[in-house]
Design brief:
Two copies of one chain form a homodimer.
Chain A (H helix, E strand, L loop, with lengths): L12 H11 L3 E3 L6 E3 L1 H20 L3 E2 L5 E3 H4 L3 H7 L4 E6 L2 E9 L4 H8 L11 E10 L13 E11 L2 H22 L5 E4 L11 E8 L5 E11 L1 H6 L2 E3 L5 E3 L1 E8 L1 H10 L16 E6 L3 H16 L4 E3 L6 H10 L4 E6 H5 L2 E6 L5 E5 L5 H25 L1 E3 L3 H10 L3 E6 L3 H8 L5 E5 L19 E6 L3
Parallel strand pairs in A: 3-7, 15-16, 15-17, 20-21
Antiparallel strand pairs in A: 1-2, 4-6, 5-6, 7-8, 8-14, 9-10, 10-11, 11-14, 12-13, 17-18, 18-19, 21-23, 22-23
Chain lengths: 474, 474
């Protein structure tokens, strides 16, 4: 049955989103304005995201470190564009104990400055390069409007900061890490994201260029989830990060940074979930299978325990719900919490040598022979669900992807059903700003490898330089 | 050979400690006063500590969450003793962007207040209890004097906060978690810590009682590493955390909190390391075995790769050092970094059908038959090292554990060779303060289960109530 606590996705998407977040107990507002409490169900998803990404980072030779959470104002100000970009959002620590601080400290909004400040004293020759460091931490940006996971004053992320001997190496790293984010979205989160280049206006403050990973939500709104930046020697010059190169000359390092955040959890919800609650792709679900015994019957308990231990021994995260709630209540709870597969084992079914298996994504209930219920059956089902969820998300994305050749077409699309819009652009910021006037539609990314649509700018119809993907964003 | 970068432990212990921290690249000071940069070698130890403790916490039914990093001043002030205890050490956020905040925010020094504030809106009946939450996070305490890992303005820890239906359950949890810390110190860190009860003066601000885990460093100075607090209903009353009990009456919850921090890394160093650098017990060493091929020889590389992959396939973390440095340099580096076992494989040795295995803890070099070099041989060696390190630490601790029956004896001990001192106490705070005048010697913990030494207070020689362990602390 429909979950009464959840507004229909078709009626009010924003309300639906917060209802799902609450009903699935993922996170809650706190009495600290703009900050969230990530609850066990939500944090378990973040822990799994961290584990999978962290293993991949390390596989590629990265090490984790921890820089201080504070940035002295003078240090932050050394790179002008960065300060300009973040100044309005910085939270300032001005007192330690009862004493006024001599210099106020920023709560890190991002840590390029701290990594540069560290690197400058810890490298001297090309033999010390590359340095491939990453940190998992909290950052603060003083947002006015906040929404669970999507935008909050404190959020959690991973920020990689690497320095290299050559531009080539650093650009390869920038691309490599964007590929990791793309892989993670497609293969783990079942989200068919689009990657491309940010425009000058949208790129990270201080970066030479920014690669971005853009996902399309069920309602056609875009979510930026994962960016990778190439800084060239800009920060290195501002923070004096030099090394002796192979030609025995002093040279500034070439730098990258890349990050992704807890907002991916928001994306996961807005791509896959439904009016019955959370829906999770099996590969990211902290709990993949729930087994619900119906009635207290020896044979039932026997089979329940057997299949549960077999699954866990074979790397399927399964658990038995033997709380005192009613079966119906347990079904609904497993559904709202997005457990991908539910196994119901009852005495009457067993008498007929059958058990029931339910898919969360399609809500299909299948009655199968007891003997069919094997580890392989469940593993295959989980992989099928993963694949089907990706396919449905891809279908949805394509259904909400349009092409516009002039402003009027663009306006019509955005007024009827927003989505990704392919349209050519002359490269002129004025056109970008003019397009933004339509419901705040922004360039998501430049698709460098795709041919132009018409060859004429969608806005000024002058000659187009770029094939751009546009959309309204969170 | 002795590492030139490291001052001898016997000459200047404090200098030796910071030298080891730097030489092993564990952490470094940052240009943010009082804050440290935890470098890859140091952070890898913390990650392994986190993984082992976190698995144990979850095994015991705890879930991880994330509370906000900020605490509004009004919220912090609701529990008087807590504020008094932490007020002098709080860092305050007073500005968001360019705006002065209406209410200043504390950077969490600890999160009892936030957990209470959350719990009060998320429980209503005994059916919602217990709540067993934990979080891994950064906290800030505005310390004046700081030392790497031991005392820094920002540090990293785990804080468990649980609420229960009955006093009995909550006290059981308080004891259970202290047992976990004790287990971790003895079985994983090879540190024979002593656990007991803090005195009224030394207990956590606002706690009914505090259990502590006290380790003795090589120089006889004590380090508190892990505390578990029972709050009774004190915070519950201050923050109005009520539930409907089985008798259908409103009752305040019974609460605990328990935490341990990155300072354990400092303890690990000060108990086990030596003048040659870091020494790590195999169970906590991020890298357990290094294999160093000598010369580029086909047979050498063959065996090197074979043993390395066999070890890694059998859950021994092993790696090959095939950088371009000289073998001697590699040996020294493995030594200063505290890799428990070093395997040296050279063409000449292989011709004699032998390889060399070196223990970091004893620095013994063993020449063994090539056939002896098996996964079992290395696994046994690692376990022997773990056991031996614990035994040596225990011997050292016992050698530095004394008994005093009066102040003069206590003074003599502290002036010649500090350590743990067993002595009776009347329970009077005046005596505690008088003893503190001797080189800041403090009660480490009350040993409730141990009989009195003499029955007379070591200070006032009036009738003693407690058998207390005393010592100078970090």
């Amino acid at each position: 049955m429909k979950n009464e606590a959840i507004t229909s996705r078709e009626v009010d998407f924003a309300k639906w989103y917060t209802d799902v977040v609450r009903a699935a107990k993922l996170c809650d507002y706190s009495s600290v304005k703009g900050c969230m409490v990530i609850e066990p169900n939500g944090y378990a998803i973040w822990e799994k995201m961290q584990r999978i990404l962290d293993d991949k980072f390390k596989e590629l030779g990265h090490s984790n470190v921890q820089m201080p959470v504070f940035i002295p104002e003078s240090l932050l100000k050394k790179e002008g564009e960065l300060v300009e970009g973040f100044a309005p959002e910085v939270a300032w620590i001005t007192m330690g104990g009862s004493k006024e601080l001599e210099e106020r400290l920023a709560f890190r909004p991002t840590s390029e400055t701290l990594f540069c400040d560290y690197y400058k004293d810890h490298i001297s020759s090309y033999r010390d390069l590359p340095k491939l460091y990453n940190q998992w931490c909290n950052v603060v940006r003083w947002e006015k409007e906040t929404r669970p996971f999507l935008r909050s004053r404190e959020f959690f992320w991973q920020e990689g900061h690497t320095i290299h001997e050559t531009e080539k190496e650093a650009i390869e790293e920038t691309n490599r890490m964007m590929e990791v984010y793309k892989w993670f979205h497609h293969e783990v989160l079942a989200i068919p994201s689009v990657t491309g280049l940010k425009t000058e206006k949208e790129k990270f403050a201080g970066a030479e260029f920014t690669l971005t990973n853009e996902a399309l939500m069920y309602n056609g709104v875009a979510l930026q989830a994962g960016t990778s930046h190439y800084f060239g020697q800009k920060f290195a010059k501002a923070y004096d990060v030099k090394f002796l190169n192979k030609e025995n000359k002093q040279e500034y390092v070439y730098q990258t940074s890349w990050g992704t955040t807890t907002r991916m959890i928001g994306g996961l919800i807005m791509v896959h979930s439904d009016d019955y609650g959370l829906v999770l792709p099996p590969r990211i679900a902290p709990k993949q299978v729930v087994i619900i015994p119906i009635g207290n019957d020896e044979k039932v308990n026997e089979l329940t325990n057997k299949i549960n231990s077999e699954l866990n021994q074979n790397n399927v995260v399964s658990y038995i719900d033997n709380t005192e709630k009613s079966p119906g209540f347990k079904f609904a709870e497993a559904e709202v919490n997005g457990i991908p597969v539910r196994i119901e084992i009852g005495a009457r079914d067993l008498a007929n040598n059958t058990v029931t298996v339910a898919r969360r994504d399609t809500r299909e209930k299948m009655t199968i022979e007891k003997e069919e219920l094997t580890v392989d059956y469940i593993k295959n089902l989980l992989e099928t669900i993963q694949k089907d969820m990706y396919e449905r998300a891809l279908e949805r994305r394509d259904k909400l992807t349009f092409t516009a050749t002039n402003l009027e077409e663009m306006e019509n699309i955005l007024n009827t059903q927003p989505g990704f819009i392919h349209a050519d652009w002359c490269g002129n910021e004025e056109c970008e700003l003019k397009i933004k006037e339509i419901k705040g539609c922004k360039s998501r990314c430049v698709l460098e490898n795709e041919p132009l649509v018409t060859g004429k700018c969608v806005c000024c119809s002058k000659e187009a330089k770029y094939h751009v993907l546009w959309g309204i964003q969170y």
